[in-house]
Amino acid sequence: MRLSAMGDVAMTVPVVAQLAQRDDLCVTVLTRKAFLPLFSNLENVEVFAFLDEHKNFWGLLRLFRELQKYKKWHVIIDLHNVLRTKFLRFLFRFSIAKIAILQKNHCEKRNLTRKNRKKMTQLPSVQDEYTAACARAGFPVEVKPCKLYDNISLPAEILQITGKKNEKWLGIAPFARHQAKTYPFKKMQEIIRHFSEKGDVKVFLFGGKADAKILEIITYNNVYSLAGRTSFADELQVMAHLDCMLSMDSGNMHLTNLVAVPVVSIWGATHPFAGFVSAGSAKNTIIQRDLACRPCSVFGNKPCWKGSYECMDIPSGKIIEAIEKIIFLNDDL
Q1: Fold match, 6-136 / 156-327
Q2: pLDDT tens digits for range 166-202
Q3: Residue 332 pLDDT
Q4: Looking at domain 6-136, which of 3.40.50, 3.40.30, 3.30.1890, 1.20.1070 is its CATH number?
Q5: Do β-strands 45-50 and 263-266 pair in parallel, antiparallel, or remain unpaired?
Q6: CA distances to 103, 149, 158, 160, 329 from 153, in Å
Q7: Residue 304 burial (10 A CB sphere; 0-12, 13-18, 19+)
Q8: Low-confidence ranges of the chain (pLDDT < 50)
Q9: What is the DSSP letter of 51?
Q10: β-sheet bridge partners, residue 286
Q11: For position 211, what pLDDT does the model report?
């Protein structure tokens, strides 16, 4: 069970993929319907959709009954451990032989993010916590890098937007859910403009439907917005063809890891020490400022207590340099 958020669900994929390789298991993932494309290419894996109608008390009771009718369950691994999944665990307590639960290390994360006397210690990655829950269920697994949508040609309707690949492809996901994790848009435009003028680079902008209007103001050559124009599955396929992705500490960083494409990630209020770098991913170039106030939150959902967001005061040139080292690695740059 992992209902949300997108990045956290994405980080379950390598774990689920390893579980599904066992001959003695049939794996079903309970998650939101929107995340089905993350698991659609995995063999021996089914997805049971958690819908909006399941959110309240009566909806969870209905979901429980639907799950009971769907299959005889032997093991539940709760990789979310929130109120809704706790309630489902309570309902299943007499009919499931074994239930394993994600441990969230709340105390250690509070020590990492408190305002004074921080304990700057690397915490286990979220995927390590997922595998630990699997081990408690009796199914130890070793996380290995995924390569979803490998060697899959882009469909014709996507090629109408992207064109054939005759140059370097750079993806940029300029947004995150919270301001404390979002690089200033004016500086991001400097990065986009730089690569639009290269001539041998095509830039694709990623975002949700709500971001489409914001991205419309970017009219540089060789820059194409995919926000609101493609499905989630289509975006994953485009990501698989990129040479590099620039992302915040957000879901797009984790999605790009799943297609084995190098990521340059920008970290503001959050910090890799909290465990949100995908395990086994050596392709992450992390850009961050070394400030005494960082990290101030685990998820970046708290406003800057200074009001300055200086953690995001990173020169655009530094980010450009990191990207160019990746996409022009074989061009003697």
Answers
A1: yes
A2: 999 999 999 999 999 999 999 999 999 999 999 999 9
A3: 45
A4: 3.40.50
A5: unpaired
A6: 40, 9, 10, 13, 24
A7: middle
A8: 332-333
A9: -
A10: 265
A11: 92
pTM greater than 0.85: yes
User: Residue type for 49, please?
Assistant: A
Q: What is the pLDDT of residues 20-39, one digit of tens each?
A: 999 999 999 999 999 999 99
Task: Show the CA angle centred on residue 142, arms to residues 140 and 145, nearest 5°.
Answer: 150
Q: Where are the domains of the chain?
A: 6-136, 156-327
* Range 156-327: architecture per CATH: 3-Layer(aba) Sandwich (3.40)
Q: What does the alpha-carbon distance between residue 295 and residue 311 come to, in Å, rounded to a whole number? A: 9
Number of CB atoms found within 10 A of residue 44's CB = 14
Q: Which residue has the tokens 């926000």?
A: 227
At a CB cut-off of 8 Å and minimum separation 6, what does 321 contact? Answer: none
* Tokens encoding 267: 């970290």
Residues 155 and 14: their CA atoms lie apart, in Å, by 25
Question: Could you tell me whether strands 284-287 and 223-225 are parallel, antiparallel, or unpaired per DSSP bridges?
Answer: unpaired
DSSP 211: G
